[in-house]
């Protein structure tokens, strides 16, 4: 363990912070007395190699996609190409200010415009804003646009939003933040949307339906166009949660399915790094009738005039405010760094995005088969095989497993399996979601993992299922932090470093 805060090197060593005024005492005199420290700050006086070792030690305590396989279902934790980092760190990207005049921002604005156009095209939408900085904020933004649309056409009475029971938790939360009541409908026996349940609740008070396709079970909704027809005939709007866009891009799009609005996760589909709370980017795309409500500003372009220096490829880019904009949902222009990284990914792999989704689907189905079909000699050692959480023969980008048989056989639950996987060097899959699958593990291998990695994960998964129950229920054993009392930790937050 690092003991960086107990280092006591030479006085005034370990940092470089010049005073704004040559005379230190004079500089100190400019600070109001009530803001002066009563004693020196407890900063370590470490040398550069000592400090480097401290941060290297910290980095090894974290798990990320660069560390190992990260099969976190619904979050698409895949490789982030390093060329994206080089591009976003170029001076013309990294060292600009959002309040700079347009003639200083033409390069960046051209990237914004191209991303707007590309995202609109691949989702079958007519207009895009890049401002939201998270998928959930994108959801909120799209629902607000739908809300303003209903108000404009005199249908403010629409106060219900429909969500399936397999929806992401942020869907009902985002709608509730806009003041809507939530109606949840159950899935059918096959895990897919139940059209009869939808017909039973849709009506004059329906504002929108929020759904992702493929669903969180990893299955495609073949009746989605019919569902859109039902909602539209009742006067409602269709919202597409783009969290699972990684599974269909290039093959189909939300516009073809009948959706009016969609959010994109640039930090999932388009490789912007994420995890641990951010950074992310959740742009939204809308059909033409919702475009005038988009947050401002968005980027538009026109042919450049001869006098306009700095134009890109003969175009002049400018900030535009939609006529009935709901206003800003994020300061400045959204997460510009995430947009640039995702633009770099798109520019490099744009022609291969269909292959990306095909490989994501192939990897998910391959890993699902490997886990559910162990060799006979392996099967004999397993306490109880998990139940496939999805009855469909083919899934898309992810799949679900229920650990209920293990609970019944030896008292080992889904959390125990997830904790034990940490000992084998993996980040645990998503646990207990979706809630319609009991003792659920949701696994998404993504398109960037090799066959060898998937084979090894399946092998180790079977080893976990073969472990003594006592080992599983007390896992993890090899991590820096062992199993914690999560209820105590949630109620007794420790928000600062201690020497203990």
Classified in CATH, the superfamily of the largest domain is: Type I PLP-dependent aspartate aminotransferase-like (Major domain)
Given as residue ranges, the uncertain stretches (5+ residues, pLDDT < 50) are: none
- Please give the largest β-sheet: 7 strands, mixed
User: Can you list the strand order of the major beta sheet?
Assistant: 1-7-6-5-4-2-3
Radius of gyration: 26 Å
Number of helices: 19
The overall pLDDT average reads 91
Kindly name the structural category. alpha/beta
Helical amount among residues, as a percent range? 25-40%
Strand content: 5-15%
User: Any guess at the CATH architecture of the largest domain?
Assistant: 3-Layer(aba) Sandwich
- Termini separation comes to 10 Å
User: Would you state the CATH class of the largest domain?
Assistant: Alpha Beta
Structurally, how many domains make up the residues? 3
Shape: globular
Number of separate strands: 13
Q: Which fold does the CATH topology of the largest domain refer to?
A: Aspartate Aminotransferase, domain 2
Please characterize this protein's 3D structure.
The protein is of the alpha/beta class and 500 residues long. The protein has three domains: 4-60, no CATH class; 82-352, Type I PLP-dependent aspartate aminotransferase-like (Major domain) (Aspartate Aminotransferase, domain 2), CATH 3.40.640.10; 353-487, Aspartate Aminotransferase, domain 1, CATH 3.90.1150. It is built from 19 helices and 13 strands. The protein has helices spanning 24-29, 48-60, 82-88, 91-94, 106-123, 135-152, 170-177, 195-201, 224-233, 254-257, 288-291, 336-349, 353-372, 376-379, 404-410, 414-423, 451-466, 469-473, 486-491; strands at 127-129, 160-164, 181-185, 206-211, 237-242, 261-264, 284-286, 298-303, 315-320, 387-388, 399-402, 430-431, 440-443. A seven-stranded mixed beta sheet has the order 1-7-6-5-4-2-3, sandwiched between helices. A four-stranded antiparallel beta sheet has the order 10-11-13-12, with helices on one face. A two-stranded antiparallel sheet has the order 8-9. Strand 4 (206-211), helix 9 and strand 5 (237-242) form a beta-alpha-beta unit. Helix 3 crosses helix 12, helix 6 packs across helix 7 and helix 13 (353-372) runs parallel beside helix 17. The model has no long low-confidence stretch (mean pLDDT 91).
């Amino acid at each position: 363990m690092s003991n960086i805060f107990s280092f006591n090197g030479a006085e005034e060593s370990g940092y470089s912070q010049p005073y704004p005024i040559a005379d230190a005492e004079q500089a100190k005199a400019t600070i109001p007395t009530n803001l002066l420290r009563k004693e020196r700050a407890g900063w370590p006086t470490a040398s550069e190699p000592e400090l480097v070792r401290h941060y290297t030690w910290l980095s090894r305590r974290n798990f990320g996609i660069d560390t190992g396989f990260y099969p976190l279902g619904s979050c698409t934790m895949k490789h982030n190409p390093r060329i994206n980092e080089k591009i976003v760190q170029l001076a013309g990207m990294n060292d600009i200010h959002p309040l700079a005049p347009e003639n200083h921002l033409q390069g960046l604005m051209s990237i914004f415009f191209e991303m707007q156009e590309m995202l609109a095209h691949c989702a079958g939408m007519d207009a895009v804003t890049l401002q939201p900085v998270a998928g959930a904020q994108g959801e909120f933004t799209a629902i607000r646009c739908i809300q303003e649309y209903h108000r404009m056409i005199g249908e403010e009475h629409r106060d219900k939003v429909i969500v399936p029971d397999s929806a992401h938790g942020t869907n009902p939360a985002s709608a509730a933040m806009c003041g809507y009541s939530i109606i949840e409908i159950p899935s059918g026996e096959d895990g897919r949307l139940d059209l009869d349940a939808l017909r039973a609740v849709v009506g004059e008070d329906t504002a929108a339906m929020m759904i992702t396709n493929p669903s969180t079970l990893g299955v495609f909704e073949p009746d989605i166009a019919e569902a859109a027809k039902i909602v539209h005939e009742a006067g409602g709007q269709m919202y597409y949660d783009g969290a699972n866009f990684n599974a269909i891009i290039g093959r189909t799009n939300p516009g073809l399915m009948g959706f009016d609005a969609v959010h994109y996760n640039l930090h999932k589909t388009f490789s912007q790094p994420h995890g641990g709370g951010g950074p992310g980017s959740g742009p939204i795309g809308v059909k033409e009738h919702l475009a005038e409500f988009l947050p401002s500003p968005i980027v538009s372009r026109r042919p450049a005039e001869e006098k306009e220096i700095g134009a890109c490829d003969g175009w002049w880019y400018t900030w535009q405010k939609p006529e009935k904009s709901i206003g800003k949902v994020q300061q400045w222009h959204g997460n510009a760094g995430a947009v640039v990284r995702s633009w770099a990914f798109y520019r490099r792999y744009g022609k291969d995005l269909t292959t990306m989704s095909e490989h994501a689907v192939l990897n998910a189905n391959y890993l699902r088969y490997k886990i559910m079909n162990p060799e006979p000699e392996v099967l004999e050692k397993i306490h109880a095989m998990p139940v496939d959480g999805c009855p469909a023969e083919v899934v898309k980008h992810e799949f679900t497993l229920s650990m209920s048989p293990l609970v019944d056989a030896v008292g080992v639950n889904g959390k125990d399996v997830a904790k034990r996987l940490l000992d084998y060097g993996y980040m645990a899959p998503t646990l207990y979601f979706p809630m319609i699958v009991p003792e659920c593990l949701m696994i998404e291998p993504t398109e960037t993992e090799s066959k060898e990695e998937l084979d090894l994960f399946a092998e180790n998964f079977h080893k976990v299922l073969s472990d003594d129950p006592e080992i599983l229920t007390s896992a993890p054993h090899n991590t820096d932090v062992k199993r914690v009392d999560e209820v105590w930790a949630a109620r007794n937050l420790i928000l600062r470093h201690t020497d203990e």
